[in-house]
Amino acid sequence: MKERLIRYLANWNVFLALLTAATLIYATIAAPNFATAFNISQAIAGVSERALIVLAMVLLIIAREIDLSVASMLALSSVVFGVVVQAGAPIPLAILAALLTGLAGGALNGALVTMLGLPSLVVTLGTLALFRGVGYIILGSGSVNEFPEEFTDFGIDTIDGTILPWTIAPFLVLAPIFAVVLQKSALGRRIYAIGGNPDVARYAGVRMGRIRLGLFATSGVISALAGIVFTARLANARADNAVGLELDVITIALLGGVSVFGGRGDLTGVFFALVLIAALRNILGLLQIGGDAQGTVIGLLLIGSLLINTLTQRLLTLASGFVASPVSARSGAGDPSESSPTAGQ
Fold first, then answer.
1. Is the residue at 342 inside a domain?
2. Cβ neighbours of residue 279 under 8 Å, at least 6 residues apart?
3. What is the pTM of this model?
4. Per-residue pLDDT tens digits for 300-309
């Protein structure tokens, strides 16, 4: 009985895939124009930034950390990009400036967490306000909305012969890389070990501070890349871009089966959660339900994700004495001590 329960919990991805498929079928039937090529393309474009940022967020949450500043870093990087372009610099230089801004911001978060021992929740809550504030200092309440045509074409065109917008291309390139690193590499095993049992990971020789710093720096760079994509898609650089986007990103990660307690999760479930959130937002928009109501739905999903995570953690704890660990290891929740032979590599 308990073995069957564990197997059911390990198949959360299957349940989420069925729920996503049911939502898409319902939307095709009930929502006007949902299944049109134009609407699908727009829905994919609208989730491009969230798709990018959630890649780094998943790694952080698995390692028992979190980054609430991702949307503010997106906005700050967008501002830096816009100001550099406005000054007459070429697009590649503006992209480099934005990515370096993200790297610096992410490294700041990581240094405060790893070197000073501050909780990442508190640190990134502070830098959430700091980064957006710096954006306002640089650009004020104005905006930059004049960009080269080839850049704005990237924001609105689709990949030749498909309905996929170019703005989703960075995610399509990076997602397999993140998946391989997380599931197949020694670094991925160390990340799971840090989140699953930090004491065991430390005893096994895992360089926890270095890995956490790298994860925060990666989050900053990915958020900056999302800022460039956001700027291209809307042809607009402002300090108030993407307000509240971090709520969607965290919801996608937790709904996708990543444990808020760390040490468990993968990108397969996160992909289905991403599609589900994109479909729900698109359906609500087609039904002319405003942004506030959409935020309410996302908030409820976040609370539900937390409840599911908490219940799952308790059930796994209760059943761990009766079922051998290989089943839970398949969901990324295995005993970190099993990774100790490779942890110090």
1. no
2. 20, 23, 24, 27, 43
3. 0.85
4. 777 876 677 6
